[in-house]
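Sample entry as discussed:
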Amino acid sequence: MVMPIDRESLVNMLRNPGVPSSDFDLNRAFQPKSTTPLRPAGVLIPIRETSEGLRLILTKRSSALKHHPGQIAFPGGRVDPGDRNHIDAALREAHEEIGLPAAQVEVLGELPTHQTVTQFEMFPVLGWVSGDFTAVAELGEVSEIFDVPLAHVLNPENFRIQSRRWRGQMRSFYTVPYGPYYIWGATARILRGLAERAVQA
């Protein structure tokens, strides 16, 4: 059972360091053989309080992007040389992609890293958004900005494991659909980890 969630309970959920996840959690036979270092990326999990309760802000990636086109994602991207760390990268990318000022984000903590099949190491940063802001999509990267009830993605019963053929082989992955939005892959796997913490809290 998921208990009611507020800012304090979110902070408490992060006290357990947890373990890293990957796109290979459900596909152990397809572990990558490459020894190339993973490329670090910071992603923001932005939560804001509304009259409808807590909401999670997500994006739909542009179909023109090389990596994960058209997928539902957290705001974020690779760590650039000018970034002090992955938290800076997550905040910078959120401002660039959806117009969220870093000054309006309180970093509550971090979730374990997640390795993608495209050889990125994602560093998820949980952020509490204060005040209103005008969401503006960076059209080169983002085709849509939307939000979903946080309670929906914190309920493990809303997650499913599905499969599809990728590069000639069947791969399994988590999904947590909401309305017209098909949330799956790395985004759903990271949210699944957060949902597991919510149940344990």
